[in-house]
Amino acid sequence: MxxxxxxxxxxxxxxxxxxxxxxxxxxxxxxxxxxLEREGVENTPDVMTRLLxxxxxxxxxxxxxxxxxxxxxxxxxxxxxxxxxRSSLLSKILxxxxxxxxxxxxxxxxxxxxxxxxxxxxxxPNYKLDTCCQPIPGDDVLGFVDENEDVVVHxxxxxxxxxxxxxxxxxxxxxxxxxxxxxxxxxxxxxxxxRRGILEEITGVISRDIGVNMVGLTINARQxxxxxxxxxxxxxxxxxxxxxxxxxxKIKGVKFAxxxx
Length: 261
Hints:
- The protein is of the alpha+beta class.
- The chain folds into three domains: 9-74; 116-177, no CATH class; 184-260, Alpha-Beta Plaits, CATH 3.30.70.260.
- The protein has eight helices and nine strands.
- It has helices spanning 7-39, 45-55, 60-68, 76-82, 89-93, 159-167, 198-209, 237-250; strands spanning 116-118, 128-129, 141-145, 151-155, 172-177, 184-193, 213-222, 225-234, 254-259.
- A five-stranded mixed sheet has the order 1-5-3-4-2, with helices on one face. The protein has a four-stranded antiparallel sheet with strand order 7-8-6-9, covered by helices on one side.
- α1 (7-39) packs across α3.
- The chain is elongated.
């Protein structure tokens, strides 16, 4: 095999490879579009995002290339063989959790060139939360504008948000939290060395010192080590961070305290 030693030859080879990749990507996209049409699944960014997540692929181009190279099969026959009790496994995997039986009216397009202010304290918030990361006011978040012009909010650190950035960057909008009047549910996880009275001290710091209402608590202790999860009503993420910090600083034996949802 001869190698390309000159810059001109290398550039020519790269151009050929780019052209070949572009051709394969276009072919894979066509196969994908035709498959969704056969299955009766609407071709939306939400569908692609959920499919990429299910297949553990970072970009839609990766899916197109795999389809074009016959590395993956999304045929209707294969789906039917996998689960005959459902009309389409893909429809099950990719169902939109925000869809309703009644078709929603199209809304005024979201201006993605300005920061979108989130208003959780309104009777009907002007955004939706996806189930993957459950952000609360104060979290660093971004918005994804779906096909109905609804803003779906994700934590910036959410894996789904990262996939959206890489595949649907044009549908993202910068967001910030507006005024907050309501309280929100958050759960913290606490681990440490068990001793008599430690649970009373933990609940005292949360309810007496910080003034936060607890709505749920579970605790397990084994071999002098305890694990506790407490569900709280908080006004923002800063309150949760303050609670976790106070528990570690004020209570002897608490080794770890962090928010888990």
